Amino acid sequence: MKAAGALVTTLISAALLLTACSEPAADDGGGDGGPAGDQEAGTASGGGEAGGGSITVYTSEPQEKIDEVVAAFNEGNPDVEVQVFRAGTGDLKARIAAELETGEVGADILLAADAPTFEAYKAEDLLLEYTPADADALLESVVDPEGYYVGTRVIPTVIAYNTGAVDTPPTSWAELTDPAYAGQLVMPNPDVSGAAAFNAAVWLLTDGLGEDWIRALGENDVLVAESNGPTSQAIADGSRPVGVVVDYLVRDLAAQGSPVAVSYPSEGVPYIAQPAAVFASSANPAGAQAFVDFLVSTEGQTLAVEQNYLPVRADVGTPEGAPSMDELHLLEVPLEEVSAEQGRAVDLFKEAVLP
Amino acid sequence: MTPLLRLSVWVALAGVVITPLVMVVSLAFGANHLPMLLEAGLLDAAVNSVVSAAVSALLAVAGAACLALLVDRSDLGGRGAVRLLMLTPLLVPPFVGAIAWTGLLTRGGLVHTLTGWAPWQMYGGGGVIFLLTLHSLPVAYLVVSAALARVPDDLELAARAAGATPRRVFGDITLPLVRPALLAAFTLVMVSNLGDFGIPILVGSPAGYDTLATMIYRMLQSGTVDAPLQVTSQIGIVLLVLGIAGVIVDRLAARRPVELEAAGQVGTPLRLGALRAPVSVVAWVVALVVTLGPLLALLTRAILPAPGVPLTWETVTLDNLRRVVTAPSTVSGVTNSVLLAGGAALLCALLGLAVGVLTTRAASRTSAGMLFTVLLPQAVPGLIIAVGWLILGRYTGLYNTGWIILGAYVTAFTAMVVQSVRGPLAAMSGSLEEAARLSGAGPLRSLWDTSIRLALPATVSGAALVAVTAVRELTLSVLLVSPGTQTLGVVIFGYQQAGDYNASSALSLIFMLVGIAAVALVVPRGSHRRRRWLRGTSSMAQGVRV
Fold first, then answer.
1. For testing the chain A interface, which of B13, B25, B214, B375 should be mutated: the one with the most A CBs within 10 Å?
2. At B336, which CATH number?
3. Are residues A197 and A260 in the same domain?
4. Does residue A341 sit in the same domain as residue A225?
5. How far is Cα A223 from Cα A230, in angstroms, rounded to an integer?
6. Where do Gly residues bias regions lie (chain A) (predicted)?
7. Which of A195-209, B230-244, B338-352, B433-447 has the lowest mean pLDDT?
8. What pTM was estimated for this model as a whole?
9. Does the annotation place A248 within a ligand binding site?
């Protein structure tokens, strides 16, 4: 039949007709994406009344956890309608980049990933400057000194293991390169997970680990899962009994009955703070700030602890089974170094560990 | 009046079919990202796409032929039930099938939980091919079975009378006569599998096995590409070329159809003899495993609180089911999916009926072109339609709204209504309309009172099919969702991607049971009508024929 031929001709002629279209570019009329466009935004103070309206949150929080956060926030702020878009940090960054190309960011708040991501947005003037109501009560290391974003939970990456399959768990990162663990390990993909990318940079910059350690890890037949969720799943169901994963997922699963436990490596743990920031283009900065204020408030942090997160303030305790904040040995690496090395670390990881 | 109707239909088609597809093609030709794409593994992805689609199509057709012979032509025990069971994958969206089967066979899955032995880590090319085969076997079967039913009994009887063994009869008479149907089933399935997204993303990607469809998704979502839409448009072109090649092969194969008159009676059943018992047992086991295996796997994960928990009476819980049903994301997912599916059904029904009437009852020189245009999206993988609407959304400001999902649904599914409507309309004689005209009715009025009224039942069943297809859809919406417009398919996909397998299984289970119930309601009563409906709709549901 001529159908197929017609199809080819139709498409080719259509293509020629419209040849060399480029991607829809940023429309200059949009303008309101820039920081100049927001008027009273900068002056709105922290703990102010939310007023109402709706806000959109882009987040990489697990769906249920963010649903609970929104429900708790709405108890105190019933007039603010919160729209949530949940996706991996990589997906969110892609979405934000695409939105910037044609207009403005569709979100009022970004609650995701790691400080370097926010540093990059800050450098592009995309974030609103403001200091959350309770900033003084928070861990100093999670509050941006310039006041553009604030950490909302301390999320260390740890070694987790299946208690049914492993009697003596590894106690250090170095130990993971032991051939005894060949074929036993699972970890998230730094190419997809923001936390994993951050960790890769920290490992690369930590004395005693570095490039050699990442390469040795690659020799050990590590299963690279897409993100932390599937990683914890593989550890819990025993298909890969030892893994590298964020600690709260392990506590979540253990609470539900999975045979998993955490081992805090002796070298210390890299951590991200899941920062929150308000976009400068937010149409409802008051509502957005109220939401961020809530995240770090005593109430919001108590909920975080109930959700198995380590909090960013000292007055709300820690989740059951988690070390207290002063017992925790955190790997602190200067942010600029992490930002500078992250790309190289991810590339190295892809080359050495990914199949 | 008809010219006006024709014009408005053309305008609608230009908006929902031509523009998005032209967008993809024109954007793709705007710049050259080929070197980057080649480095990113375009060639591997293309090879994986072709190999997985071709091998699964081959296996599906071979399996379908065996199945057709066994359940249509042999004295297999309980063949009606075997046929019905083997057709169930048709009712399950491929991505739900992927969630279920990995939950059955891989480590940590049902078999592993029960026996401590994990039969198959199905991640990778093998798993993709297996699942594609399983999900396309019913469609292949319906095509082959229809052809088999038209093989005249007397030819076979004559051969038998002349002393041929059953094997000779099959090889010399039956097989040559159904060969065109086998080939047609092959291309149909292959083109459709080429564009499948759910199976390769859930089963292939975790093992680094990318196809063109998953590569498009990754390029759009990774945030590492500079001009993601243009880049994915270029991958889309590769898919489009492969799809067109498939359609051309199909057309070449269909050029010499074997015209067969429907035999007065169905051929004598093939006697299996001593093999009857063992073959029946094997067929029953396969049919039961295919049907119940995935269902049980979903059920187990749904009622276990967390991975690694042993399955005992004490550990069973309904918490997962309760939490996924009450989760705000599920509620909004259901609302969105139902609204979008309902809207798509309505729009597709209107457009489809108009196209059906114009191309059968009021033929003009542009009718062939109109029919071609509306059926075209069936040869285009869903992801390309989605990319087209993404680009369109960026240009029109509809980005981040539900409208682009609705638009994509109308692009992809209008053909279902058209195909459903054209049959009855074409079979109708023109005398009814003439009678109406003679009685003084205007052209539109006479169309409305005769053809359209008579075509309404077919329109409704076509629209119902659109609704059922759209409500369980993932491929289009996964690229087009925005805050507040996540569809149900995307919600399940999200749970699975986030590693909450207990939640994704719980929601899949509910989804599957509701889906089966819905299809059972939509399918006409009466076994003959039901089979005809299934045969017609399944090829549409796979969405390929031009």
1. B25
2. 1.10.3720.10
3. yes
4. yes
5. 11
6. 44-54
7. B433-447
8. 0.83
9. yes
Per-residue H/E/C for B57-82:
HHHHHHHHHHHHHHHHHECCCCHHHH
Looking at the fold, whether B399 and B489 belong to one and the same domain comes out as: yes
Question: What residues of chain A lie within 8 A of the CB of B25, using their CB?
Answer: 11-12, 14-15, 18
| A221 plus A346 within the same structural domain | yes
Count of the separate structural domains present in chain A: 2
How many whole angstroms separate alpha carbon B37 and alpha carbon B226?
A: 12
Residues B294 and B386 in one domain: no
- Can you give the pLDDT at residue B351? 95
| Same domain for B293 and B352 | no
Q: Mean of the pLDDT values across residues B230-243?
A: 85
**Crossing angle of helices B453-471 and B328-360, rounded to 10°:** 150
Q: Does residue B324 fall inside a structural domain?
A: yes
What DSSP string describes A32-80? TTSGGG-SGGGG--TT----S-EEEEEE-S-HHHHHHHHHHHHHH-TT-
Q: What is the pLDDT of residue A155?
A: 92
Which residues constitute the domain of residue B458?
1-27+318-501
pLDDT at residue number B52: 96
Q: Is the pLDDT of residue B56 over 90?
A: yes
Chain B residues whose beta carbon lies within 8 Å of the beta carbon of residue A102: 394, 399
pLDDT the model gives residue A11: 47
Residue A61 lies in a domain: yes
Q: What is the rounded CA–CA span in Å between residue B540 and residue B533?
A: 11
CB atoms under 10 Å from CB of A292, counted, come to 27
Is residue B531 in a domain?
no
Residue B515 lies in a domain: no
What residues in B contact A228, CB-CB < 8 Å? 499
Are residues A212 and A121 both part of a single domain? no
How many structural domains compose chain B? 2
Residue B278 structure tokens: 């063992």
Same domain, B95 and B113: yes
A23/B30 touch (CB, cutoff 8 Å), yes or no: yes
Task: Say whether A246 sits in a helix, a strand or coil.
Answer: strand
Mean pLDDT by 10 residues, chain A (355 residues): 47 46 45 36 42 88 90 93 85 82 86 86 92 85 91 94 92 94 90 83 91 92 86 90 94 91 92 94 94 95 94 90 83 86 88 82
Mutation target for B interface from A32, A61, A64, A73: give the one with most B CBs within 10 A: A64
Question: Mean pLDDT, to the nearest integer, of B105-125?
Answer: 87
Residue in A closest to B103 by C-alpha: A237
Residue A36 lies in a domain: no
Looking up tokens 């940090």 gives: A89
Residue A20 lies in a domain: no
Regarding whether A128 and A77 lie in a shared domain, the answer is yes
Residue at B536 is within a domain: no
Residue A236 lies in domain: 155-270+337-354
- Relative to beta strand A275-278, strand A150-151 is antiparallel
The reported pLDDT for the residue numbered A207 is 87
B545 touches B375 (CB < 8 A): yes
Q: What is the pLDDT of residue B146?
A: 82
Mean pLDDT, chain B, whole residue set: 84
A5 belongs to a structural domain? no
